[in-house]
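Attaching the record inline, Q. Sequence:
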Amino acid sequence: MGIHKLDNMRYNILCDLNSGQRNVGEETLASILSEEQLKKEINDKNLIQSADVNCAEGIKYDFRLSNRILKSSLGGPINLQELPALERSKVAVDPGEVVFVLTEERINLSADVMITLSPKRKLSHEGVQILGGLCVDPLYQGHLLIGLYNFSSAPFLLKPGRKLIAGVFQRLTDVEKMEFDIPDTIIDDFPDELVNLIKNYQPVGTKDLVLKVDELSKELRLMKSLMDDEQKWRTNFEGYLEEHSKQIGDLLHGLRQEKDIREKSLKEERDSRNSQLTDMKRELDNERISLKAIFKVNNILLGIALIGVGIILRELWSMLIN
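Structure, as predicted:
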């Protein structure tokens, strides 16, 4: 399925028609192939091959699931018809898995035909989403390659022949025709790059997601419990710190008081000793003065005594001489 290239050109045509800049006649847009035209193309095997006329209803054709599927658990592309009946009946798109399939029909579009696709509504009711483009460009050749994603919680059984996607065929007018590049690849089987991708693909099912969510929930509950315990521990620790801080504060206050008392006592003792020293110094000074006075008196008395002795000795000497 390619990406349609006509959208910009159609927009330009509509703008030109509205502005009156282009006169392209009445047939300016593509015409939709009716049911009768579709059945004729099916019978002629022109646009659609391996088709069923019963799948043409109204203006659409319902493309069906073929036996060719690409599922990671099977290791690569397989043909369901090659599996045993019991195993074939159990092949499904598991919850959370993507499986690629090919349509039973093979298309061979001319340069003036494109297809607009729309998934069957019943698929979404069963929890399956179509992956891929919804427009097929002119000149496309091959089967339609469709991805099936199961977003439900139940397996989606793959039954060949089941209608997957509806296509509305539109024949382009001369105004809409343009030079389309011929596709490089004809989709007759799954591309190699897609096969390699699916071989390494690990589906994530809803069961796995539920288990992961449960594990995360347990981890979150454990983390919350640890955080609550940590918060409780912090609260208790803060209480202990506050109590210890108060005790330390009381101890410091007591030490300050004790320091002040001791400093006051030491000051008083120092002042008392200084006063005693002052008194002792005063007494020593008084005694020193007294000793000086006594020493002077003694010197005077000694001098008087010496004078008297000298007189006496002189008198005695005079007496001796005479």
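The two ends are 181 Å apart (CA to CA). The longest helix spans residues 206-321.

More tomorrow.
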